[in-house]
Amino acid sequence: MKKFIISLTLVTFTIPCFAWNNHAGITYLILKDHWKNQTVPMVKVESLNSFLNQERDSIQEVLSISEDWALTKLPHLTKTSEDLKFSPKKNDTNLVPQFYRALRVNPNHKAALYIQSVPTKEGKKLSLEELTTLHEKGKLVNETFISLIEGEMIGADEVLVTATDEPDYDLDLHLFEDNNSEVGKLYGFGTQPFGNPAVEFSSQAPFHMGFFYEPKIIFTLAGFLKRTYPELRIHQFTELSKLAFRKGHSYWGYRFAGWALHYIQDLTQPYHSSVLPRVSAAKQIGVQLVSFVGYQTPKNNMIEFVSGRHTLIEEYQYYLIKNLIQTKNWNHPVASSIMNLKDTEETKWNRVDDLRVNVCKEAYDAGEAADEQLENLNITKYENLYEEGHPIHSILATLLKNMSKHTRAYLDHLIK
Question: Signal peptide location in the record (predicted)?
Fold first, then answer.
């Protein structure tokens, strides 16, 4: 049995850890429609350190509320040690590192003042070195980031669009004991449950995925799959957003809301709510068992097929959304699915407790059909964009409509 668990762990190492590659672009399309009949609020840009210094007496109370909630929801979560809690002394001025440690996020995250240029906007460009600690920048090299100055006014939509992408820049990197980092040994998350701890971007996987509907036998044999943390992040950043709005820090109200939305949007992705869509528990167990006697082909094929479809949908979506925004092709079936939500398709956001039912179950259920349709396309990898009537667009339209409705519901609830 131990060998089985080790083998299944290795399977999950190979599954891609990306979700929606283009959070900013998709959120731009959502807000372009959702806020079209209202004046977009303007907010004053404020540094994180300024916010923390002004609200230093309230921060730990908010973080404690989130932790108390999470400890009841996530049995695998450990308490934050006392020496990590946010308790600045009177003469402390740079509170950002202490705040990050209290959140148990990457203490080197930069939280620069900037917007992602979606669509293209003029301004002083921000270098990637000022934005992220990632060694492998990936698709960030394709994007343009514009510096902001503290005190200037900016549209709330630009803050949200930018912030929904930000958690992927390094916020959840290297937080486990086996990630070869100082904080990994301090934060109490244990060893990385899945994803490859030796791969930089993969170290964030358990914070951006949530497996809640796998067959009981899978959870029995691979209990580590339960050790996920997106709900913790959503609750933390939602409560911080509420605090910021209550205290008059609208910029950080929207920015924290965008951070929370990132994880919600991730969980609308079927490959982030299901380990191996369309692969039954019996088959997963079977391929592990035959691999013990040296027959690796079934397991390798299973991994290759599922991870290939996961990667394909992410790659294709990224370049498609960029093209739709550049060409302003709002009538494209994917753009239309994101932007034109009917009243009957709307949903409501009540609380983080309902996330598993409202968001994750929907994504899990959508995974089987989407995976089968992607397999039938017989496309091995992204090479170019297809004509509007291509079936890959109907797959994306369905999945991104779900992302659109949950994004709108969360924002409506929070801003009210």
Answer: 1-19
CA dist 43 and 49 (Å) reads 17
Cβ 24 vs Cβ 161: under 8 Å: yes
Backbone angles phi, psi at 143, to 5 degrees: -105, 160
Separation of alpha carbons 333 and 2, rounded Å: 48
Q: For the chain, which residues make up each domain, given as ranges?
A: 2-415
The distance from CA 6 to its chain's CA centroid, rounded to whole angstroms, is: 27
- pLDDT tens track for 338-355: 999 998 999 999 899 999
Nearest in space to 29 (alpha carbons), one of 234, 327, 389? 327
Q: Where are the alpha helices (DSSP H) in 116-185?
A: 156-163
Q: Dihedral (C-alpha) 316, 208, 13, 301: value to the nearest 10 degrees?
A: -40
DSSP state of 91: T
- Residue reference for tokens 């929801």: 73
Distance (Å, rounded) from C-alpha 196 to C-alpha 169? 18
Read off the amino acid at residue 135. H
Q: Is 356 helix (H, G, I), strand (E, B) or coil?
A: helix
